[in-house]
Amino acid sequence: MSNRIVTFGEILLRLSPPSHLRITQATSFDSYYGCAEANVAASLSKFGLPVKFVTAVPDNELGESSLSMLRSFGVNPIVSVQGKRLGIYYFEQGASERPGKVVYDREDSSFSTLKMGMIDWRTIFKKANWFHWSGITPSLSQDLANLCKEALEVATEMGLTISADLNYRPKLWQYGKKANEIMPDLVQHCDLLLGGVDESESVLGVPRNELDTDDIVFANWMKVYPRLKNIVSTHRMDANASSNGISASLWNGKKLLHSRKYNISHIIDRIGAGDAFMAGIIYGLITWPEDHQMALEYAVAATCLKHSISGDINLATVNEIKALVSGAGGGRVSR
Amino acid sequence: MSNRIVTFGEILLRLSPPSHLRITQATSFDSYYGCAEANVAASLSKFGLPVKFVTAVPDNELGESSLSMLRSFGVNPIVSVQGKRLGIYYFEQGASERPGKVVYDREDSSFSTLKMGMIDWRTIFKKANWFHWSGITPSLSQDLANLCKEALEVATEMGLTISADLNYRPKLWQYGKKANEIMPDLVQHCDLLLGGVDESESVLGVPRNELDTDDIVFANWMKVYPRLKNIVSTHRMDANASSNGISASLWNGKKLLHSRKYNISHIIDRIGAGDAFMAGIIYGLITWPEDHQMALEYAVAATCLKHSISGDINLATVNEIKALVSGAGGGRVSR
Amino acid sequence: MSNRIVTFGEILLRLSPPSHLRITQATSFDSYYGCAEANVAASLSKFGLPVKFVTAVPDNELGESSLSMLRSFGVNPIVSVQGKRLGIYYFEQGASERPGKVVYDREDSSFSTLKMGMIDWRTIFKKANWFHWSGITPSLSQDLANLCKEALEVATEMGLTISADLNYRPKLWQYGKKANEIMPDLVQHCDLLLGGVDESESVLGVPRNELDTDDIVFANWMKVYPRLKNIVSTHRMDANASSNGISASLWNGKKLLHSRKYNISHIIDRIGAGDAFMAGIIYGLITWPEDHQMALEYAVAATCLKHSISGDINLATVNEIKALVSGAGGGRVSR
Amino acid sequence: MSNRIVTFGEILLRLSPPSHLRITQATSFDSYYGCAEANVAASLSKFGLPVKFVTAVPDNELGESSLSMLRSFGVNPIVSVQGKRLGIYYFEQGASERPGKVVYDREDSSFSTLKMGMIDWRTIFKKANWFHWSGITPSLSQDLANLCKEALEVATEMGLTISADLNYRPKLWQYGKKANEIMPDLVQHCDLLLGGVDESESVLGVPRNELDTDDIVFANWMKVYPRLKNIVSTHRMDANASSNGISASLWNGKKLLHSRKYNISHIIDRIGAGDAFMAGIIYGLITWPEDHQMALEYAVAATCLKHSISGDINLATVNEIKALVSGAGGGRVSR
Amino acid sequence: MSNRIVTFGEILLRLSPPSHLRITQATSFDSYYGCAEANVAASLSKFGLPVKFVTAVPDNELGESSLSMLRSFGVNPIVSVQGKRLGIYYFEQGASERPGKVVYDREDSSFSTLKMGMIDWRTIFKKANWFHWSGITPSLSQDLANLCKEALEVATEMGLTISADLNYRPKLWQYGKKANEIMPDLVQHCDLLLGGVDESESVLGVPRNELDTDDIVFANWMKVYPRLKNIVSTHRMDANASSNGISASLWNGKKLLHSRKYNISHIIDRIGAGDAFMAGIIYGLITWPEDHQMALEYAVAATCLKHSISGDINLATVNEIKALVSGAGGGRVSR
Amino acid sequence: MSNRIVTFGEILLRLSPPSHLRITQATSFDSYYGCAEANVAASLSKFGLPVKFVTAVPDNELGESSLSMLRSFGVNPIVSVQGKRLGIYYFEQGASERPGKVVYDREDSSFSTLKMGMIDWRTIFKKANWFHWSGITPSLSQDLANLCKEALEVATEMGLTISADLNYRPKLWQYGKKANEIMPDLVQHCDLLLGGVDESESVLGVPRNELDTDDIVFANWMKVYPRLKNIVSTHRMDANASSNGISASLWNGKKLLHSRKYNISHIIDRIGAGDAFMAGIIYGLITWPEDHQMALEYAVAATCLKHSISGDINLATVNEIKALVSGAGGGRVSR
């Protein structure tokens, strides 16, 4: 396949108590490596697309392990080895009415020491035609926001398609800027956006009337960000920590398409569900560029399956996702 | 906080096969230390109240481990080291239509060798203002029933508020007395009682007409036990071993208050759910003495969260419980 | 009890990633020994019936372990030690919309080297009065189909009651014959059959009109296979990999009996659910020969409980199954 | 093989923290079922001899599991289901200078409720030609000592060969008798004895001069117990909890034979080492009745291999033990 | 006992791959909480002495867990809840010629944000008579070095005995000062010191002639630091990652006492061995103030046993250590 | 680095019981992917050399997982997806005098279906300068022996340096040819050989006088196989399953160089020790082409460290191996 994708972001060590234990009762932690853009990269590579992942890690065993994980998926890591530590997040699985809980310990990571000029974007983007980033990176520091912008400008200049996941986490924006002071300058480079109407004002700086339907909101976004070709959103319903419904929608500038809704009765791991959707929609739009409904169904089936898989990364294959789109759910053992 | 609580009871070793295995297929057992009153003690200590736990353990590693567990929660154990063994119960987790199963092996435990005169209640109760016990202790032997009575009389004399959980388990009453020959003499000392209308005759010796509504039954209890100020009950609905609904009610002599109902779709561990409620209502009545509804909502949210936590003891914090009372269930990851 | 049962089939090593992990992320596999007829044998032995299991295993630790498992249930294995390997299947637990997955690696197993004349059926059947087999065995090779026939002819001659589970798995029929070229010759020896209307044409060679109700289909089967006395079927409803409803029906030549329906909200392991039913109906018809409804209720309660038990084999006891038939589901801990 | 062996004794649940953890830091316990005579029974069955094991267990899952374990080895358990609990011992693995530690919790077990007249020895001994018991059983109660005597008298009358392991554990003799008040009456029935010179006075009541060499001591034993044909002893050298040397000797009334000495540099589990030796010497004397040296070498190689095996029971096969006797130690992987 | 001890230092989360795995192959990490002074505190509390531990932790589950661990030992934590993270170190167990490996990730921890004036030493030291610190704390920042000095001056003024472990780790001294620019000012307050002759110049600023015997070096130390009453040292011999010899010496100003030497043939966990010794010598000098040899033997037996125990903290009891001093090593199972 | 290496061979799934359990007592198996040449490939890639690995795997999750493992090390797998199964070997860790045990289940694997003409050697060898194979491959089938020959002829023609590990396992040569009927034709293409004098006649067809010293034997080999430039051998001493000494020698046609000897007191996993040596000597001869002693010391230090690492593959890094060569063994924790 001639599509070649570059993603850019931080990779973290995730530490999770096993068997639904709480952090305060853990005597061990299951370890995974991943985070937003790395999860997208690994999933796209699992789908069979060639993927580079640009990041920074420390010169120690944790950095090395994070790269081994990426390589095991066939992702090609483009790494700056610098700084002192791999960022960490502790994740406690929730159950029923007890919410899952993330405790971040990612400050002062190797990735957070990256600055403009440290990455040779021109070489990295050679032969690539898609660039993906998320709102996590510019939330971490002004330097990373600048670096993001640098990447986007080069990617635009070199003609890559650009996608972003807004991924708005208010707690991460700690360096004195609000999301909507930084993100608009970056989102203007995007062709594809994953976000929700709640993020209209806070992230994109686009005022929203509470009564506006989603199609109106997304149409407003496209006015402000004219490069946008598709806007996608996911929706959780009737959710507790063990089960929820999930569906998604896509606005292509003309129509708001709605996906099938899945009831997920037994969540194994919801971390990375949005990243699974993101990888799904990128794969979908590349594979069925004329069939937005199919692309959307693929993406929502991907995120549905992710909820059944431990760790941050969606291990569902193209065939498994297509089978679910075609109606072959979990009711029968596949022999 | 000036409230100081004393609880009294046995602490057991619980052995549970991991991963929903049955006892007959286990090659290992997860171990926990706990039991009715110990669970209440640990939960109250986790809520920030100063708690003493009065018990007896053998002079071996199992006894020591049970005390370490209590100390890890900040509970102050007042221990008589005597006897030969720590009591055990094996607990097999159920699933769907397979019930959880308890196999007791608690006879001849150190705790069961306690007798009147062995515990210096006056010293222990000094500076305390609340005493909690449960119907488990007097079910084990006449000596323990007598010791219970001794404690209750001293506590009454010294002006402590007294609470009890009826905790009626017919199989435990093996020493020739029925529950309703022993319990009334003890319950007359109580200000707060956790029990269900089913226990009216069998435990409290108060005849019940099947047609009586709960408020009528509880009003009858208050006539027989005039010291009672509040009676609380929990209710399970649509239950199997993996899911149930839960709610609770409180009779304060005037009104039967009803709590919100929670649907627990994925039970991690239901052992100690009643103890979590008991700790919750004690904390609630101490914290919001004028707001019985809030106390009740706090207690039922506490028991709801307990179902999501492995082991006997509720690890939910005051903030987590209040968040659930305020409507923040498990639908979102707490970041 | 004077009933003595002989079962015949292959025993496999099952390798399953723990904790719902996928095969591609496993760093260990939980191991179980079992397969269709072995599961029936072990369950019947657990019910208290004397059972022989006829099979072949290699002369190595895996063969030995599979026999130890059978013996641990009290099954008496009649074994031919021959061939080179114990067959394997990898089983990945599904969750919600992700189906469970079986990867077979059972070709060239010791069992597959069995041929006519290698087993002394006359000695084995002495004192026995029931013979059970399944459609797995004749699917594996012409030699095994022939061996099956040999066994059935001897069993018929010696007057045993004969039961079969059609167990139709299209992927296994690889040696050039279709199921309905082989199975009719074998099924004609059966008194009791477990199968579904879908298998009418493909397995039994009995044409079926899509509009026919089940009783009509089964009545047709009895015409073609006049020895049949009872035909039983199980039905899954509203199924995903984590939950489903289950019920069953029995056609005794006169009436189509329907069982109670169970909702299984949390499946622990669905492998062997059919075998648990098979063992249940054999036990039921032996125990309550005049009460087909009771036999059917016993069998469906058995399969319901199997879904809550890890591994291939139903560990539910007669008392536990009877309790569920009597309405005592998982809503209460059994103390 | 025409030899049929009966063993008699208690079977316990052993609970051991995994991975060399101490009991006080365990959050789980590995579980095994075994104890002196049960270990001998299982090992003999693994060697291919038909073995019955006479015991008592409670009517619960723990009792059932202990029997399943025995059956998995092919042992035929002759069981009285009575009493309330399966005895337990906690075993903490030692390491280097930290000794392994046993915490007993075996009082009031089902086995301890056995009395004379409860076991039908005549039926059990029919067709058997060897009876094995150990000094553990008579140490537990006067009733069990009496029952032991009853068994020995019937076995003697019926012409069985009788073996015993003195297994002297001072802490177990708690019912008011000393070992040497009880054991002589029992040992007089024995043909084969496993014991050490240290036990001469305390167990057998035979005074020993510290300067006496082992052959003199054993010759004295044979004078007092004229039925004895062989006395065997094991010797540990340079021992810490992780490594030791081991050898053994056999006095056949004429000569003191000495075995090869093994250096065990890495002990996996030393529990049951004596039982492995006992099973080895029984097998050895049955198999090579004229070659006492070979029997002894077999027994010491058996105990050597036991140290490399987790749990109470020796899983070494006849071929593995013979290979070690022939010099094939652990230096090469067996492919 | 009237001795009351205060220790001061950081507590870290330790993450170790299980089963001798390397960090790069771990899929989980065993977790422990501990570090130099915390280990001393917990061990002294296990010995039965009342101990306070002064530290700082973040307001999250990791901080809370570290305190629970301390409380479980009976240690009373005096905590300032501040800062953002609990420091971490990854520890990979070595084996044979592969060294154990520590990867620090402790910068920017809560403890590292402590400064002079933040701790109320006067209140903390009230009723205490011993203060223990180590060279780790002043190595972390100038602020912590100042805080150390503050503590030492108050302790000196209030008449406490003061002990220190030099604990020299060159990699930790990163803030621009060398150890021997900071430590002398602190060590002058000490009565008891654990250190090695290698640290003479680099830590204490006392020049050392390579040919000087240990007694000469220590005598020189006492000249420079006249408050010192005892100097203790440990010695490893013939070491690889799995085994070593260990002994210790004590200089009391008059004589260089030498301990027994232990051969540790199978190291379970060597982390915290020095801290175990430190706790041992503190306990020893308090318990046998006149018998320095006994105190030294106690301390070296304590460190010997620590090598057999997983985690940072010595779980050996006073009785176990005394038994080893008396010659009862691991050669026999303690029943 | 301009060296590019191609290796060729089978990759297997290894299943090992955890914690030194025997296969017959395992309830789970730890899984690893590896085998002779794959282990060499992964180790060389870990050393920083670019490596391709040529193999065949089935189109299922096991095949995919084996490739992920290789990719995680940076190895580039050149794979033919064909056939039905991934070969398996069960490995039971030994201990002390109990030997480790391999049970092969590798027949009919995907790799065994490879034949001449299926692999495009010319494309694969482009830009490569080293080819490595082992005697395992030609032992499996005549087709694989032919394919080996094909590869060697192309490699020779394209000027690659060629190395081989004789890896003689008599049990694998099952297709009717003896090793010395096949191997000479292949070894004649080699520049570097790993083998022992024991294999002289049986593998290489070079008669050996028992009295010949190693240098004489190797000199004879070079006469028969004139392309050989270096012959290397490893030597185990004083071996049991838990500990051994290890050293190596190298004959370069002029001199027999001897390495340092290591005592490995605590073996974690000896599988792959020879492969670790092979990777070490390849790396050594590439890195220090003029310093054979250094190359040899590197290789023997590599194999020494492998014994401390779980799984088939040496995870030691260049720096760790060099440190051991320089004398920095496991005696100190690396901080």
Automatic annotation (TrEMBL), chains A, B, C, D, E, F:
Source taxon at top rank: Bacteria
Pfam families registered for this protein in UniProt: PfkB
Gene3D superfamilies in alphabetical order: 3.40.1190.20
Keywords: Kinase, Transferase
CDD domains listed in its UniProt record: KdgK (cd01166)
Residue ranges occupied by any Carbohydrate kinase PfkB domain in the UniProt entry: 4-309
Coiled-coil blocks: none
Keyword presence, Plastid: no
GO molecular function: kinase activity
Family: Belongs to the carbohydrate kinase PfkB family.
PANTHER family associated with the record: 2-DEHYDRO-3-DEOXYGLUCONOKINASE_2-DEHYDRO-3-DEOXYGALACTONOKINASE, SUGAR KINASE
Protein's UniProt name: Sugar kinase
Lineage of origin: Bacteria, Pseudomonadati, Bacteroidota, Flavobacteriia, Flavobacteriales
